[in-house]
Protein backbone atom coordinates (compact mmCIF):
# COMPACT_ATOMS: atom_id res chain seq x y z
CA UNK A 1 0.00 0.00 0.00
CA UNK A 2 1.47 3.32 -1.05
CA UNK A 3 0.82 6.14 1.45
CA UNK A 4 -0.16 8.82 -1.07
CA UNK A 5 -3.70 9.90 -1.92
CA UNK A 6 -2.94 10.55 -5.58
CA UNK A 7 -0.30 10.16 -8.27
CA UNK A 8 0.39 13.90 -7.96
CA UNK A 9 1.10 13.48 -4.24
CA UNK A 10 3.43 10.56 -4.98
CA UNK A 11 5.31 12.61 -7.59
CA UNK A 12 5.57 15.53 -5.18
CA UNK A 13 7.12 13.20 -2.58
CA UNK A 14 9.51 11.73 -5.19
CA UNK A 15 10.44 15.20 -6.43
CA UNK A 16 10.10 14.04 -10.05
CA UNK A 17 7.66 12.44 -12.45
CA UNK A 18 7.02 8.74 -12.05
CA UNK A 19 8.42 6.40 -14.68
CA UNK A 20 5.84 4.30 -16.57
CA UNK A 21 6.74 1.33 -14.37
CA UNK A 22 6.25 3.40 -11.21
CA UNK A 23 2.93 4.75 -12.50
CA UNK A 24 1.79 1.18 -13.22
CA UNK A 25 2.92 0.04 -9.78
CA UNK A 26 1.14 3.00 -8.18
CA UNK A 27 -2.11 2.17 -9.97
CA UNK A 28 -1.84 -1.50 -9.03
CA UNK A 29 -0.69 -1.30 -5.43
CA UNK A 30 -1.87 2.03 -4.02
CA UNK A 31 -4.96 0.59 -2.39
CA UNK A 32 -3.78 -2.99 -1.86
CA UNK A 33 -2.66 -3.94 1.65
CA UNK A 34 0.99 -5.04 1.84
CA UNK A 35 -0.07 -8.43 3.18
CA UNK A 36 -2.09 -9.09 0.03
CA UNK A 37 0.83 -7.98 -2.14
CA UNK A 38 3.03 -10.45 -0.27
CA UNK A 39 0.43 -13.21 -0.81
CA UNK A 40 0.77 -12.72 -4.57
CA UNK A 41 3.89 -14.84 -4.15
CA UNK A 42 1.98 -18.10 -3.76
CA UNK A 43 -0.18 -17.38 -6.83
CA UNK A 44 2.90 -16.44 -8.86
CA UNK A 45 4.63 -19.63 -7.69
CA UNK A 46 1.72 -21.77 -8.88
CA UNK A 47 1.55 -20.08 -12.26
CA UNK A 48 5.32 -20.51 -12.75
CA UNK A 49 5.26 -24.10 -11.51
CA UNK A 50 2.38 -24.95 -13.86
CA UNK A 51 3.50 -23.09 -16.99
CA UNK A 52 7.32 -23.18 -17.03
CA UNK A 53 7.78 -26.99 -17.24
CA UNK A 54 4.99 -27.40 -19.81
CA UNK A 55 6.90 -26.80 -23.09
CA UNK A 56 9.54 -29.45 -22.39
CA UNK A 57 6.94 -31.83 -20.94
CA UNK A 58 4.90 -31.54 -24.14
CA UNK A 59 8.05 -31.94 -26.21
CA UNK A 60 8.91 -35.14 -24.35
CA UNK A 61 5.38 -36.52 -24.54
CA UNK A 62 4.44 -35.51 -28.09
CA UNK A 63 7.62 -35.27 -30.16
CA UNK A 64 9.10 -38.40 -31.80
CA UNK A 65 11.74 -39.88 -29.47
CA UNK A 66 14.38 -39.85 -32.21
CA UNK A 67 13.99 -36.06 -32.31
CA UNK A 68 14.34 -35.51 -28.55
CA UNK A 69 16.68 -38.35 -27.55
CA UNK A 70 19.90 -36.54 -28.56
CA UNK A 71 19.04 -33.84 -26.02
CA UNK A 72 17.66 -36.10 -23.27
CA UNK A 73 20.14 -36.73 -20.46
CA UNK A 74 18.67 -40.17 -19.78
CA UNK A 75 16.91 -41.03 -23.05
CA UNK A 76 16.09 -44.57 -21.96
CA UNK A 77 13.79 -43.22 -19.24
CA UNK A 78 10.47 -41.96 -20.61
CA UNK A 79 7.56 -41.25 -18.29
CA UNK A 80 3.93 -41.68 -19.30
CA UNK A 81 1.46 -38.76 -19.40
CA UNK A 82 -0.15 -40.24 -16.27
CA UNK A 83 3.22 -40.12 -14.47
CA UNK A 84 3.66 -36.46 -15.45
CA UNK A 85 0.17 -35.67 -14.15
CA UNK A 86 0.76 -37.57 -10.91
CA UNK A 87 4.02 -35.66 -10.33
CA UNK A 88 2.22 -32.35 -10.93
CA UNK A 89 -0.67 -33.18 -8.59
CA UNK A 90 1.54 -34.55 -5.80
CA UNK A 91 3.88 -31.56 -5.95
CA UNK A 92 1.08 -28.99 -6.18
CA UNK A 93 -0.57 -30.48 -3.08
CA UNK A 94 2.65 -30.31 -1.03
CA UNK A 95 3.40 -26.78 -2.27
CA UNK A 96 -0.09 -25.59 -1.38
CA UNK A 97 0.03 -27.11 2.10
CA UNK A 98 3.58 -26.04 2.95
CA UNK A 99 4.40 -22.86 1.02
CA UNK A 100 0.78 -21.75 1.32
CA UNK A 101 0.82 -22.22 5.10
CA UNK A 102 4.25 -20.56 5.37
CA UNK A 103 2.94 -17.64 3.36
CA UNK A 104 0.12 -17.07 5.83
CA UNK A 105 2.40 -16.87 8.87
CA UNK A 106 5.64 -15.38 7.52
CA UNK A 107 4.42 -11.87 6.77
CA UNK A 108 5.76 -10.44 10.08
CA UNK A 109 9.25 -11.68 9.08
CA UNK A 110 8.91 -9.97 5.70
CA UNK A 111 7.96 -6.71 7.38
CA UNK A 112 10.71 -7.08 9.97
CA UNK A 113 13.53 -7.50 7.42
CA UNK A 114 12.25 -4.47 5.50
CA UNK A 115 10.76 -5.71 2.21
CA UNK A 116 9.20 -2.46 0.97
CA UNK A 117 6.25 -1.84 -1.31
CA UNK A 118 6.43 1.93 -1.87
CA UNK A 119 8.13 4.23 -4.36
CA UNK A 120 10.62 4.65 -5.93
CA UNK A 121 10.93 1.32 -7.68
CA UNK A 122 14.46 -0.12 -7.66
CA UNK A 123 16.69 0.47 -10.68
CA UNK A 124 17.66 -2.41 -12.96
CA UNK A 125 21.20 -2.31 -11.56
CA UNK A 126 20.00 -2.49 -7.96
CA UNK A 127 17.65 -5.37 -8.82
CA UNK A 128 20.38 -7.31 -10.63
CA UNK A 129 22.87 -6.82 -7.77
CA UNK A 130 20.33 -7.99 -5.19
CA UNK A 131 19.37 -11.05 -7.25
CA UNK A 132 23.05 -11.97 -7.59
CA UNK A 133 23.47 -11.79 -3.79
CA UNK A 134 20.35 -13.91 -3.29
CA UNK A 135 21.61 -16.57 -5.69
CA UNK A 136 25.02 -16.71 -3.98
CA UNK A 137 23.53 -16.90 -0.47
CA UNK A 138 20.93 -19.49 -1.48
CA UNK A 139 23.53 -21.57 -3.31
CA UNK A 140 25.89 -21.63 -0.33
CA UNK A 141 23.32 -22.38 2.37
CA UNK A 142 21.42 -24.77 0.11
CA UNK A 143 24.65 -26.67 -0.55
CA UNK A 144 25.15 -27.43 3.14
CA UNK A 145 21.52 -28.28 3.82
CA UNK A 146 21.48 -30.61 0.80
CA UNK A 147 24.71 -32.22 2.00
CA UNK A 148 23.17 -32.78 5.45
CA UNK A 149 20.11 -34.31 3.80
CA UNK A 150 22.42 -36.95 2.29
CA UNK A 151 23.42 -38.25 5.71
CA UNK A 152 21.66 -41.53 6.59
CA UNK A 153 18.82 -40.09 8.68
CA UNK A 154 18.25 -37.06 6.48
CA UNK A 155 18.03 -39.18 3.35
CA UNK A 156 15.90 -42.00 4.81
CA UNK A 157 13.40 -39.73 6.53
CA UNK A 158 13.22 -36.73 4.19
CA UNK A 159 15.37 -36.39 1.09
CA UNK A 160 14.59 -39.78 -0.49
CA UNK A 161 11.28 -38.30 -1.68
CA UNK A 162 13.04 -35.76 -3.94
CA UNK A 163 15.20 -38.59 -5.29
CA UNK A 164 12.23 -40.73 -6.36
CA UNK A 165 12.85 -39.23 -9.79
CA UNK A 166 16.24 -40.70 -10.75
CA UNK A 167 15.70 -39.12 -14.18
CA UNK A 168 14.09 -35.81 -13.22
CA UNK A 169 11.53 -33.78 -15.15
CA UNK A 170 10.73 -30.08 -14.78
CA UNK A 171 7.59 -30.81 -12.77
CA UNK A 172 9.71 -32.73 -10.23
CA UNK A 173 11.89 -29.70 -9.38
CA UNK A 174 9.99 -28.87 -6.16
CA UNK A 175 8.82 -32.48 -5.63
CA UNK A 176 10.02 -33.20 -2.09
CA UNK A 177 9.00 -34.13 1.44
CA UNK A 178 7.05 -31.28 3.07
CA UNK A 179 9.84 -30.83 5.63
CA UNK A 180 12.41 -30.33 2.85
CA UNK A 181 10.21 -27.73 1.14
CA UNK A 182 10.04 -25.79 4.40
CA UNK A 183 13.73 -26.16 5.29
CA UNK A 184 14.87 -25.08 1.81
CA UNK A 185 12.68 -22.00 2.14
CA UNK A 186 15.22 -20.56 4.59
CA UNK A 187 18.18 -20.29 2.15
CA UNK A 188 15.77 -18.71 -0.34
CA UNK A 189 14.63 -16.16 2.23
CA UNK A 190 18.09 -15.53 3.70
CA UNK A 191 19.23 -13.31 0.81
CA UNK A 192 16.29 -10.88 1.04
CA UNK A 193 16.72 -10.90 4.85
CA UNK A 194 20.38 -9.86 4.52
CA UNK A 195 19.83 -7.39 1.66
CA UNK A 196 16.20 -6.22 1.81
CA UNK A 197 14.54 -5.37 -1.48
CA UNK A 198 11.35 -4.06 -3.04
CA UNK A 199 8.36 -6.42 -3.17
CA UNK A 200 8.64 -6.59 -6.98
CA UNK A 201 12.25 -7.82 -6.65
CA UNK A 202 11.09 -10.31 -4.00
CA UNK A 203 8.53 -11.75 -6.45
CA UNK A 204 11.08 -11.75 -9.27
CA UNK A 205 13.62 -13.60 -7.11
CA UNK A 206 11.23 -16.48 -6.46
CA UNK A 207 10.15 -16.58 -10.12
CA UNK A 208 13.75 -16.79 -11.39
CA UNK A 209 14.76 -19.26 -8.69
CA UNK A 210 11.88 -21.57 -9.61
CA UNK A 211 12.58 -21.32 -13.32
CA UNK A 212 16.24 -22.12 -12.60
CA UNK A 213 15.20 -25.21 -10.57
CA UNK A 214 12.85 -26.32 -13.36
CA UNK A 215 15.68 -25.87 -15.88
CA UNK A 216 18.13 -27.96 -13.85
CA UNK A 217 15.52 -30.72 -13.40
CA UNK A 218 14.30 -30.64 -17.01
CA UNK A 219 16.10 -33.81 -18.06
CA UNK A 220 17.21 -32.06 -21.25
CA UNK A 221 20.61 -30.63 -22.13
CA UNK A 222 20.32 -28.30 -25.10
CA UNK A 223 23.60 -26.90 -26.52
CA UNK A 224 21.84 -23.57 -27.21
CA UNK A 225 20.56 -23.11 -23.64
CA UNK A 226 21.53 -19.47 -22.78
CA UNK A 227 22.29 -20.49 -19.15
CA UNK A 228 25.49 -22.05 -20.53
CA UNK A 229 26.82 -18.49 -20.80
CA UNK A 230 26.51 -17.94 -17.02
CA UNK A 231 29.89 -18.48 -15.30
CA UNK A 232 29.96 -21.42 -12.86
CA UNK A 233 26.32 -22.32 -13.62
CA UNK A 234 25.65 -26.00 -12.92
CA UNK A 235 22.69 -26.63 -15.20
CA UNK A 236 20.66 -29.71 -16.01
CA UNK A 237 23.49 -32.16 -16.72
CA UNK A 238 25.20 -31.28 -13.43
CA UNK A 239 22.10 -31.86 -11.29
CA UNK A 240 20.76 -34.76 -13.36
CA UNK A 241 23.91 -36.67 -12.44
CA UNK A 242 23.12 -36.13 -8.74
CA UNK A 243 19.65 -37.66 -9.27
CA UNK A 244 21.03 -40.46 -11.41
CA UNK A 245 23.40 -41.62 -8.66
CA UNK A 246 20.67 -41.14 -6.05
CA UNK A 247 21.06 -42.31 -2.48
CA UNK A 248 24.80 -42.92 -2.65
CA UNK A 249 25.48 -39.57 -4.28
CA UNK A 250 28.23 -37.58 -2.62
CA UNK A 251 28.59 -35.31 -5.61
CA UNK A 252 26.94 -32.15 -7.02
CA UNK A 253 25.08 -30.87 -3.96
CA UNK A 254 24.91 -27.22 -5.04
CA UNK A 255 21.60 -26.07 -6.46
CA UNK A 256 22.76 -23.35 -8.85
CA UNK A 257 26.54 -22.92 -9.25
CA UNK A 258 29.46 -25.34 -9.34
CA UNK A 259 32.00 -23.61 -7.11
CA UNK A 260 30.81 -24.93 -3.71
CA UNK A 261 31.20 -28.52 -4.94
CA UNK A 262 34.61 -27.60 -6.38
CA UNK A 263 35.83 -25.85 -3.19
CA UNK A 264 34.66 -28.65 -0.87
CA UNK A 265 35.72 -31.44 -3.22
CA UNK A 266 32.24 -32.86 -3.80
CA UNK A 267 32.41 -32.78 -7.58
CA UNK A 268 35.10 -35.45 -7.89
CA UNK A 269 32.65 -38.25 -8.66
CA UNK A 270 31.04 -36.17 -11.41
CA UNK A 271 34.33 -35.16 -12.96
CA UNK A 272 35.59 -38.75 -12.88
CA UNK A 273 32.36 -39.90 -14.47
CA UNK A 274 32.54 -37.27 -17.21
CA UNK A 275 36.11 -38.31 -17.99
CA UNK A 276 35.08 -42.00 -18.08
CA UNK A 277 32.17 -41.16 -20.34
CA UNK A 278 34.38 -39.21 -22.74
CA UNK A 279 36.67 -42.25 -23.05
CA UNK A 280 33.68 -44.55 -23.54
CA UNK A 281 32.20 -42.33 -26.23
CA UNK A 282 35.50 -42.40 -28.07
CA UNK A 283 35.33 -46.19 -27.87
CA UNK A 284 31.72 -47.24 -28.56
CA UNK A 285 29.53 -44.16 -28.97
CA UNK A 286 27.48 -44.32 -25.76
CA UNK A 287 24.16 -42.47 -26.07
CA UNK A 288 23.15 -41.79 -22.43
CA UNK A 289 24.79 -38.88 -20.67
CA UNK A 290 25.40 -41.20 -17.69
CA UNK A 291 25.46 -44.68 -19.13
CA UNK A 292 28.72 -45.91 -17.73
CA UNK A 293 28.24 -48.09 -14.64
CA UNK A 294 26.84 -46.22 -11.65
CA UNK A 295 29.55 -44.98 -9.35
CA UNK A 296 30.35 -41.81 -7.45
ZN1 LIG B 1 20.07 -35.00 -3.19
ZN1 LIG C 1 16.92 -32.23 -7.52
TrEMBL record:
This is aldehyde oxygenase (deformylating). GO terms for cellular component: endoplasmic reticulum membrane. Residues 132-266 form the Fatty acid hydroxylase domain. Keywords: Endoplasmic reticulum, Lyase, Membrane, NADP, Transmembrane, Transmembrane helix. InterPro entries: Fatty_acid_hydroxylase, Sterol_Desaturase_Related. GO terms for molecular function: aldehyde oxygenase (deformylating) activity; iron ion binding; oxidoreductase activity. Belongs to the sterol desaturase family. GO terms for biological process: lipid biosynthetic process.
